[in-house]
Amino acid sequence: MRRAAATLAVLGCVLGLGVSGTGVPGTAATAGKAQERPEPDGEAIWRGLQQDPVHVMPGAQARFDDATIRQQRRSADAEVAGTVYIVVAPIGRSGISIRNALDDHLGEQDELITVGGLQVGTDWFEFAGGRYYGDGPEGDWSNAVNRRHARTVMTTYDVTAPLVDVLRMARRADPADPAPPPAREPAPRATVDRLATDLERDRIADGMSTDGIGHGDIERPPYDAEEFGRFRIAYLPPARPGQPVDDPLPALSRRFPEDTVVVVRGLWVDAAGPGDRDAVDTALQYARDNRNDDLLWLGRPASAVGDFYERIGQIRRGTLDPRGVPVKPPSADETGGVVGPWAFAATGVVIASVSAGAWWWRRRRRQESEARAFRLASAELTAELARVAAAITVADGRDDPGPGRAAAAERYATAVGLAEQATTDAELAVALDVAGEARRMLEDVR
Fold it and tell me: What top-level class would CATH report for the domain 39-170?
């Protein structure tokens, strides 16, 4: 994601477009913090790998079944021409940064598998002779490996299952069938009472251990998110791998039947509340998908909680239906069915960025970060379009919406059109700029 952001900045300089400010709110700051860390010490990592091909870097928080992973690694090692290495990195370290640090040390036939935070990855272009390059069962193989085990990994920090998948793939075997997530059982009464007391007093219960990834990273609901009901949220430490998970959510929901209760167990966000359950499920799915990298790689549950607040608020206001679909986008009559001439310059930027993007996509080791950047940009654009649609709906309720409403509707339609044609995150950035213009126009006529 860091490299994708850098590429956007370069494109902006070349094309004269200021795109540096069009990232995902909160993500830019997070990425900045990650960039402040010194680059991984490739020499030190390589020395560790020479002593043990399963190298756990200091500060790593991922857990795994050591005997299982070593047995699977030996089986994979016997099937490849080189050596299979595994590096488990601490939170905030991407697999790409680890691979780049080891470029001068790895042999042409070696296979490197990384765990960046809780995100399992490899160089899919070269992995198993390129067999897994390109689309996988869920868009790409990185998604297929990480998302199929997401609930278990985020709840327990146990990455055994995705690591086994990748080690099987190294020897050209199919990934194993995903195991069911840990069984859940009602939390003890004492636990529920303690959490309920904290939630009654502050509506925030921070039960994370001092070494938990999310400790101190608490997301409070914005003031406008509670227009249709209060939120109460409990942060809890990860569960023990292989053990049933104590689940306080049902009991807490009964204690606060009029409120939306959010429980974060490790990095897994769950919620319950009054009203349509489909609406809660839609908001949860959006938050988990939109912040998948923040959760697995950066270990930031608060960002997903913030997205949940935003999406459930949009549904309860009527901006989105329970499926997350805008209820009232601007009509073709309002925009004339055409894009105004002001947008032609943006179209030129899109055309130019396509050719630049083609060069980017050919860079074999950047495929994963490019796909990640596209997913994040797409999710942010969807959220921005929903905010614009909500603002247009509010403007419709005024006696005199003013000219800003019609102009904003035109730009909204243009942003939707650009988004539908976008194939790179640079093109999505252009659409995000246009949608932002629409929202600012509506703010000017309040």
Answer: alpha beta
Two tokens, residue 210: 């001092």
Pairing of strands 119-122, 111-116: antiparallel
**CB 386, CB 379: distance < 8 Å:** no
CATH number of 184-312: 3.10.310.50
How many C-beta atoms surround the C-beta of residue 365 within 10 A?
Answer: 15
Q: What is the pLDDT along the chain (446 residues), one digit of tens a residue?
A: 333 333 333 223 322 322 222 222 233 233 333 335 678 899 999 999 999 999 999 999 999 999 999 999 999 999 999 999 999 999 888 888 899 999 999 998 999 999 999 999 988 777 877 777 666 665 567 777 888 899 999 999 999 999 999 999 999 888 888 888 889 999 999 999 999 999 998 888 877 644 444 444 565 665 555 666 788 999 999 999 989 999 999 999 999 999 999 999 999 999 999 888 888 999 999 899 888 877 888 888 888 898 898 888 888 888 777 777 666 555 545 444 444 433 333 434 443 343 334 333 344 445 556 666 677 777 778 778 878 877 777 776 666 556 667 777 777 877 887 777 777 777 788 888 888 888 888 775 55
Q: How many residues does the chain have?
A: 446
Domain ranges of the chain: 39-170, 184-312, 332-444
Q: What count of other Cβ atoms lies within 10 Å of the Cβ of residue 373?
A: 27
Distance CA 270, CA 408 (A): 35
Token couple for 284 = 């949860």
Coil, helix or strand at residue 430: helix
